[in-house]
Amino acid sequence: MRSVLIISLLSCFFATYNAKVFSKCDLARKLKAHGMDGFHGYSLANWVCMAQYESNFNTRAFNGKNANGSSDYGIFQLNNKWWCNDNKHSSANACNIMCSKFLDDNIDDDIACAKRVVRDPNGMSAWVAWQNHCRSKDLSKYLAGCKL
Q1: pTM, full prediction
Q2: Which of 36, 48, 52, 64 is least crowded, fewest Cβ atoms below 10 Å from its Cβ?
């Protein structure tokens, strides 16, 4: 009986620890439902491409190794220097949110913050991965077969 309880507890722990990794089509549908297709002039394919290269669609992606000492959080790799507060470094916290909120499976707040990011003059150029892999490219493969 004790072993069943221990196994049950461990499975609960691992179930909550595992990240949600979206498929490109599931992410595209979620982003479209949140009005991201055409938001500030960026197609849905741009958002999906950027998310692939920033996090590989992983909601719990974390990069704590930026050259300036900052860290990036979540599916869109939102930075703690500008967009969120991690209570470790000073931050502009332009999205008025704790960075840890970008590491859960609910990406509604990630999407709201990404919308805030692109309203700045740099637009999607705020994401280096978008600049390097998505800007001015044929992005049709990112929505291919998605039946949106």
Answers
A1: 0.87
A2: 64
